[in-house]
Amino acid sequence: MFVPATRPDSYDVVVVGAGPVGLAAARLLALRGVTVAVVDPQRIVCQHPRATHLDDETMRTLQTLGAADFEKDYLRQSGWILEDADGVPFLEFSHPDAESDQGWATDYQSHQPDIESRLRGLLAGDEGAALWLGWEATGVDQDDHQVTLRLQERDTGRVQEIRGSYAVGADGAGSFVQHAMGMEVEDLHGTQTSLIIDVHPFEHPDGLPRTTGFIRCAKDLPVTYCPLFPPLLRFEFMLGDHHDVHEMERPDSVYELLSPWLAPGSYRITRTDAYQWHAHLVHGWRNGRVLVAGDAAHTMPPMLGQGMCSGLRDAMNLAWKLAMVVRGQASESLLDTYESERAPHVTPYIVESARQANMIEDFGHGHVPPPAGVPQVLERHRPLLGPGLVDDPAGAIGQLAPQPRDGDGARLDDVTGYRFAVVGADGVIAGVDDATRALWRRLDAVVLPGGGHDYAAWLASHGAAVALVRPDRYVHALAAGTSDLEEATRALAGRVLRAGVTA
Q: Which of 24, 57, 328, 346 is deepest in the core (most CB within 10 A)?
């Protein structure tokens, strides 16, 4: 007879929300030896995709999580076209075709249900991880030592309390955790309502591009078209206040809206939802032992495709810090660098996505500019981290480090894992003193003399020989020589390691 495994009721960290951000944070914690519980009211994953876009940085995150093998099936997005109401292009952008310095292509359309299913399954096999699926968080309290969450099982109404040294609310834009903690939300003014229609065509229609999206700035009803994980297609119609949302969601309305591109009966409707987008930034991502991440900390319109990407960056930044704190390697003050680093990084994405959404709304009133002529190549925008482990990040410091391949084609992150890395010139690394090597051991840093020609070239372009890279792949310090490397290591250890802890 099958007997379900029993679950403890006390963990190092409890994560509320089993979307990509919550699952990623939990898996990263588990990889660092932290006991973690994931709580979510849905027993199985939502079967239609919500977020779809991944960039090269977030592909590195999936690589670390154990889900990079999906990449071969993802759609590589080739660009975007902005059209006037008659379908005539007035602005065109293309994505770079080559692999970026991150070791992946720059833009993909993924399938969120597959990512979530993979991460749930991996967590089910991770020692010290527990899945509380079908349970909804209904209360949260904390004291100086722990967080207590009250859960209710949706099917049975059964009530249970679980505890964690810390809790992370990754429970979406309507976050229970965020509201329970009374966190302040700033409106950055990018609110629109879109009718989202996802379809599964029986055959790809001849009139729709397979890898390029477009925004048609039709007066009164701008529409965004985006090919998703093949063969799925998405249409988003920007609604005005005068539109009746319920009428727009009806199948007969959908058939009429899609008729310029798809004949009724040539596709299956998989989703039709009116969704209100916001440009919101929470202030105070940490309240004692409770933190928020992903849409619970920030939301943005979909124009840049950076919502899920930004949430996964939160997970990468937070998880290694939480792991060091709960294992006694770092003091709680390390957690204060989470918001201070991430909020300045995510804010430009929120502001720009709001600007573009407002621009499309304005185009819907007929204010379409003249054609720009030659198609433009989109340049990757990579903001700096805010102050945290470094007081004033600048240049390469606080920027994403590259991920070169070695001579056999292996990517750097597969060697370093989710750990600090010391990468660069063999002679400089070999010359450091024993105290520096002891600090590397305390930091659990991977030391990689050399790092491959591409890394050496990148270092040389910054006048450096060695880089100290954080577990979240951001550059902490560059060193031109051995004494610089020793000093940078001491500074990092002083910001991260708990005084008096030697193991």
A: 24
Q: Which of 405, 396, 403, 447 is nearest to 426 (CA)?
A: 447
Burial-class residue 78 by CB neighbours within 10 Å (0-12, 13-18, 19+): middle
d(Cα 48, Cα 136) in Å, to the nearest integer? Answer: 21
Phi/psi at 347 (nearest 5 deg)?
-60, -45
- In angstroms, the CA 22 to CA 45 distance is 13
Q: What is the pLDDT of residue 374?
A: 66
| Placement of tokens 């849905």 in the chain | 42
Residue 324 half-sphere exposure, CB side, CA atoms within 13 Å? 28
Q: Is the dihedral of CA 203, 209, 214, 218 positive or negative?
A: negative
CA pair distance 353, 382, nearest whole angstrom = 14
What is the pLDDT, as a whole number, of residue 190? 95
Q: Which two tokens stand for residue 155?
A: 């099917």
- Helix 20-31 crosses helix 56-65 at what angle (to 10 degrees)? 50
Enumerate the β-bridge partners of residue 118. Answer: none
Instruction: Give, as one character, the DSSP assignment of residue 4.
Output: P
Measured between alpha carbons, how far is residue 441 from residues 64, 83, 320, 351, 445 in Å?
A: 21, 56, 16, 41, 6
Position 295, amino acid: D
Gap between the Cα atoms of 302 and 309, Å rounded: 11
Q: Where are the beta strands (DSSP E) in 106-183?
A: 107-109, 129-133, 135-142, 147-153, 159-169
pLDDT at 3: 44
Q: Whole-prediction pTM value?
A: 0.97
Regions of the chain where pLDDT drops below 50: 1-3, 503
Residue 225 backbone phi and psi in degrees, to 5: -110, 135
pLDDT of residue 4: 55
Burial state string for 152-167 with b = 16 or more CB within 10 A and e = fewer than 16: bbeeeeeeeebbbbbb
Closest to 161 measured CA to CA, from 123, 135, 126: 135
Distance CA 127, CA 12 (A): 13
Residue 284: both structure tokens together: 């105070």
Terminal Cα-to-Cα distance of the chain (whole angstroms):
45
C-alpha–C-alpha distance, residues 56 and 461, integer Å: 21
Phi, psi of 362 (to 5 degrees): -65, -40
- The C-alpha torsion from 432 through 478 and 105 to 62, rounded to 10°, is 60
Question: In whole angstroms, what is the distance from residue 60 CA to residue 162 CA?
Answer: 32
